[in-house]
Design a protein that fits this description.
- The complex is a heterodimer of chains A (about 45) and B (about 220).
- Chain A is mainly α.
- Helix content of chain A is about 90%, strand content about 0%.
- Chain B starts with a helix and ends with a helix.
- The chains are: A mainly alpha (about 45), B mainly alpha (about 220).
- Chains A and B meet through helix 1 of A and helix 1, helix 2, helix 3 and helix 7 of B.
């Protein structure tokens, strides 16, 4: 079908943006959780 | 944890079903042909982006009235998710415009106000990175967030108030959409709204963890 390539491109890019965003947020959250654990250990050792 | 996985699976299922509907069930539009199927992604993404910016506005107002950090977390989470949806709108629009209008972009009221909206919410997020103190950051960005929300009704009303290259609304008008197209549009809207809620929740959790890390870092410095 004519122009179906444009439709596929739009959907691939659209879903790609959402997927990348989801992965970025998950990674940032995981890094922050590690940082929280590290800080808690530092504080426990300091007391 | 299980509820989160089930929620994410439900969103993926809904997105898959709406894409199946857009590609294999929706009839061809008579004038534009198959390229009109971008409509089932582009238009709901636009509506969901505006909804996310409305949630951001509520979060900003909530912080200004109550001065509780959770409202600020909601504001920034919704702003970032709204920006992601707005990005998809600004990418899929030109992909659709080229075969439909012959140009990727034109400076008409709807397109220009949407680009300005994207830039405003990007500046909202940049502004937050420039203020270190969490209370000051929340206060300044809440004021700014309330101010930039003024562009949202402008984007929504642009196709009613001015003659634009962008088509007039077909979704909320009687006889605007073929019943099958309407059902697929509603399914896409539902699935993308569910995705917005999932992403805002995920991003809110990130902001809550960041706040905890900032408090612990200050305590560690004081020890």
């Amino acid at each position: 079908m004519k122009n179906l390539g444009s439709v596929m491109t739009a959907y691939m890019i659209g879903w790609g943006v959402f997927f990348l965003y989801f992965v970025t947020v998950a990674r940032r959250t995981s890094d922050l959780r590690k940082e929280v654990e590290r800080l808690k250990q530092t504080l426990t050792r300091g007391k | 944890m299980m509820a989160k996985v089930l929620g994410a699976a439900a969103v993926v299922f809904l997105l898959g079903a709406s894409a199946y509907g857009a590609f294999f069930v929706a009839p061809n539009e008579l004038t534009m042909g198959p390229v009109q199927r971008i409509f089932y992604l582009h238009a709901p993404c636009g509506m969901v982006a505006l909804t996310a910016f409305l949630v951001c506005f509520v979060g900003n107002l909530g912080f200004l009235f109550k001065r509780e950090a959770k409202w600020d977390w909601l504001g920034v989470s919704a702003a970032e998710v709204g920006l992601a949806f707005c990005t998809v709108v600004l990418i899929t629009g030109p992909i659709w415009a080229k075969p439909a209008w012959g140009v990727y972009w034109t400076w008409d009221a709807r397109l220009t106000s949407t680009l300005v909206l994207w830039l405003l919410y990007l500046s909202y997020l940049i502004l937050r990175t420039m203020v270190e103190d969490p209370d000051r950051r929340a206060l300044i960005s809440s004021f700014y967030g309330v101010f930039i929300f003024l562009d949202v009704p402008l984007v929504y009303g642009s196709i009613w108030w001015w003659r634009t290259q962008h088509p007039q609304p077909v979704v909320f008008t009687s006889g605007g959409l073929n019943p099958v197209m309407r059902k697929i549009f509603d399914l896409s809207w539902l699935s993308l709204t569910a995705l917005m809620i999932l992403l805002i929740r995920q991003r809110y959790e990130l902001e809550a963890t960041r706040a905890e890390a900032e408090i612990l870092a200050r305590e560690a410095e004081a020890v």
